[in-house]
Structures are given as C-alpha cells and as structure tokens.
Amino acid sequence: MNTMVMDKTADKSRIGKMSDVEAQMRRDLAACYRLVALYGWDDMLATHISARLPDEDGKECFLLNPLGLMFEEITASSLVKINMDGEIISDTPYKVNRAGFVIHSAVHAARHDAGCVIHLHTLDGVAVSATEDGILPLNQNSMTIGSKVGFHEYEGVATNEEERARLAKDLGDKPLMLLRNHGTLSVGPSIASAFTLIYLLETACTIQVRTLAMGQKLHAADPKVIAETGKMMEDFNIASYADAMVWPAMLRKLDRENPGYAD
C-alpha cells in the first residue's frame, strides 16, 4: 500500500473516534470545500473555509483545510483542528496555511456568532474588490446584500497577526466583506448560511463584471426599490432558510457529483 493510501485509511479511521458534534461539523465543512470547488470558486491550494468547534480544554478552536490538498479532495477526517494561538490540536500529518489562520482566527475571535467563515479569491470577486465602489445595485442579488458588505484595505499577504484587529474592526457586524484587491469573505452562524451568503455575493460580482463588460448604457433601478430590496436581509431569516432548504439540496447535488467528502 502506498503512503497516500495509508494516510487516507488512517484519516478515515479518526472520524469514528470524534464526538458527534465534531464529526458532523467536519462532514459539513468538507462538503462546503467540495461545493466551492464544484462551483469553480477555488484557487489551487489557496483560500480557506473554517468552522468553529466547541471549546477544547477551555480554549476556542476551529477547523481549517490541510495545506496541500485541493478543495475537491478534502474529507471530513483530513480537516485540521487549531486553536486561536495557531496550535494544531488534532492528530494530523498536515499543516495549515499561515494566512488562513490569521484571517479566520481574527473573525472567530471577534465574532462569536461566526460559526463558519468563507474566504475566496474568485476571478470576479477579486475584480470587484479592486473597484472603488465595490458592489453596485445592478441586479437583485447585489441589491439584497449591498448594504451588508464591509471593506478591508489590502495589507499584503495576510501573515501579520497585527492585521487581525483591523480586519475584525472593518468587518464589524456585517455578514459579508470585500477584501480590497484580494477577494471575498462571508460569515454565518452555520456552514449552510455562510455558503448561501457567499453564493449571493459571488453571483452579484459575476453579474456585475458581465454587465459592465457589455459596454452598454446601464439602467438604474428606483432607489426606493433598491432600499426595500436591501431590507430583505433584515426581515428574512437567511440562516433558517439555508439550514432547512439550501444545505440539504446542496448535499444531494454533491452526493451525485463528488461523493466521499464524509470519510
């Protein structure tokens, strides 16, 4: 048996030794990684998605992707558990990306409602993040989320722990963020809600890029309608909708197209 097969067999055996809560969190997070790959939002080995776990030994901890695996390869067992000091506290042969720790620990430490944090470098998301106005109210998705998007200035590759305080401050209580010249970010109480939010943001970015690329005169919606559409995020329980309806549908899709994430 080669080393890769041995590693996967060892990983798979670990999932049965975990608490039910951690095991389910790992399955959902692995599914989220694979869905991001399925939608074409991954960036080789870069970017990251994290999920908060119950405290361990009195310390906050979360799951992060193993450095070196493609998103489409990630399984529940291969995810790495780390604490807020960046220490790996699970039995694993893998390491984690330093920038991933800095960005995700910043959000999890500042936002106790952050059950899941998704950070991406999609082509359209990065393109919109590099524009001065960011999300424009050109389509229904952008009108829905436009007022819920924060901004964080680019400070270089996110390896400096001092950036964490500034990132958390810029995010505030918003569920979405454009990291200037860098990418997108979503925060949700669950993996399902964070995925649904990033879907809305990424779709809005793609539609905006395509709309502006046509070089046609833009049609502006009524400002009152834009404002009313934006209130949907306040009046609509997106977390409940995501957990009850979106996520089961996404898992069925993934089971058809890229099964094996739950191992």
Can you put this structure into words, describing what you see?
- With 263 residues, this protein is an alpha+beta fold.
- The chain has one domain (19-252): L-fuculose-1-phosphate Aldolase (3-Layer(aba) Sandwich), CATH 3.40.225.
- It contains ten helices and seven strands.
- It has helices at residues 3-14, 20-38, 98-110, 123-129, 140-145, 163-171, 191-213, 223-230, 232-235, 238-257; strands at 48-56, 59-64, 80-83, 116-120, 149-152, 176-179, 183-188.
- A seven-stranded mixed sheet has the order 3-2-1-4-7-6-5, sandwiched between helices.
- α6 links the parallel β5 and β6 (176-179).
- Residues 1-10 have low confidence and may be disordered.
Mean pLDDT rating = 91
Large-scale geometry: globular
Structural class: alpha+beta
Query: Poorly predicted ranges (pLDDT <50, ≥5 residues)?
Result: 1-10
User: Which CATH architecture would you pick?
Assistant: 3-Layer(aba) Sandwich
Kindly report the spatial arrangement of strands forming the biggest sheet.
Answer: 3-2-1-4-7-6-5
Q: Please describe the biggest sheet, giving its number of strands, its sense, and whether it closes into a barrel.
A: 7 strands, mixed
User: Compute the gyration radius: what is it?
Assistant: 18 Å
